[in-house]
Amino acid sequence: MFRYRNLRVYQEAIQFHRLMVLLTKKFDREFEYLKNQVRRSSLSVALNIAEGSAKNSDKDFNRYLVIALGSINESMASCEVALGEKLISVEDFQRAEQSAENLTKQLGSFSKKLKA
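RE: above sequence
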């Protein structure tokens, strides 16, 4: 039951979301829409892993992992906008990027394992 809890990639996705929440805490009210978008897209990564883990086949599960990868890209695109608006520092952006790259590699490896 709830097999996603045992997946390292799920735990990493939760950490990625926590980082995005931390980075967006101080966004100006004017950029509330961007703050919400970053948080929703980063949360979507973990939620898609969890939802996919309940599917009956590895093929179905893999489809959700692909969606999770898209959500990572969406999160990082939003972070780039935040960087351009000077809402986050270069260092914070690099931290987010490193976390996203790590998570992307894990999802890619897991996806390959499901296809095998």
